[in-house]
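Example: Oidioi.mRNA.OKI2018_I69.PAR.g11577.t1.cds.
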Amino acid sequence: MEMCGYDLREGTNKNGVYEDKVRYDLNGTQKVTILTDEFNKIVRRHNKTEPLFAYLSFHAVHTPIVINKKDITQIKDTYQRTNKNCNKKRTQILSMGTGMDRAIGRIVETLQRNNMWENTIIVFANDNGGRATISDNFPYKRNKSSTLEGGIRVPAFIHSNLLPESRRGERTDNLMDMTDWLPTLLSMSQCRARPFADKPLDGIDQSAMIASEIEDVPTTGPRDEILHHMDYLKTFSHRNLEDPREFLTPIREELKEKGFNIKFHTGIRYKNWKLLTGYVVFRDYKLERHHLESQTEGSGDSDPTLELGKLVALFDIVEDYREKTDISEQNPEIVKLLLDKLADYYQSSVDIRFPKLMPEADPKNFNDTWTPWIKTAEEHGFNHPLQIQFYNLEIDRLFYSVDMHLVENSEYRSEFKLRKHSRASMRKSAAGNA
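Written out as structure tokens, the predicted fold is:
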């Protein structure tokens, strides 16, 4: 089942009453234009004596692709692209980037005209690497949806006239995670409020690293660790995957006590080290060829379904940022340290929710628009406390469930189909050599 619907709404809060309306009239308009227009209106109406926070999620560059014909023409002229030598989708993506650049320029002009530029902090950030076939993440490996650097290392910068002149135009290689922006911006804006009610945050205040005079910048920032990924569902239980390397045997036994498995799809960065586990690093032709050849020779205790490969890979990400050389076997103590950290994260993590697709939620039921479809207990007219309790439990059961069929048939399965074909070719080759 596939679901697709329109989902652009304008919300208002009047006297504590929230209302929203679907903006069908803006269908086909680039989201960068919509948000920039709205931001400019807000700035012009804003009381300059009060603080202002704006979060502009431009949705560019991203699908759905909504193009500006003038930008398409400019891209073709700039890169001398013709219908014969250009990737149509790539040209469209570049044109959306041009639209984003123009929108940022309009925002800067609006802040300047309204005398807010000198007292503004602007953060430009990204969420993931570009998509395969239409993006180039070189020199990093892979792309969006991957825990390799091409999927997670992204450009970001901060600009403000409040920064010391010695820091402007400088860069830092210290670690920073997206979660750090909340405490960092609260500190830089001298905000005394604590919207998180003093609860522990995942983020770390990085204001000292960003706003200190150049001679006071620490050589290492306050963060030395980032959890890149933790998905314990995509273990591909339908495949008999195994990492046979002996140095992992004692580590694996210790991890069992914490419920952690190296088949989990995880990634962690610690100082200059980066460790990945799971299918993302699985392919190892030497291990697999050795296994297939032993099968061909008639080994009686071999398992024909067994697939050997690496389920753990370690990189010195500072020296080997292209992730070419796995050095896990040479550094078993680092591997153990990082696997222990991952196991601790796993034990403290919130359960994954992956509920089944529900026909009642299909936008086709609501004029092809994404719409809230579950009524509250009050809307059903339930008054008795037990009625309300049981109804809410049923809703929780729906949304806190996991549909393993969806998990097993997610976008990553196609990657294993390709590997299966490759493995079949290797099996033929091994048989021929025998």
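The first strand starts at residue 9 and ends at 14.
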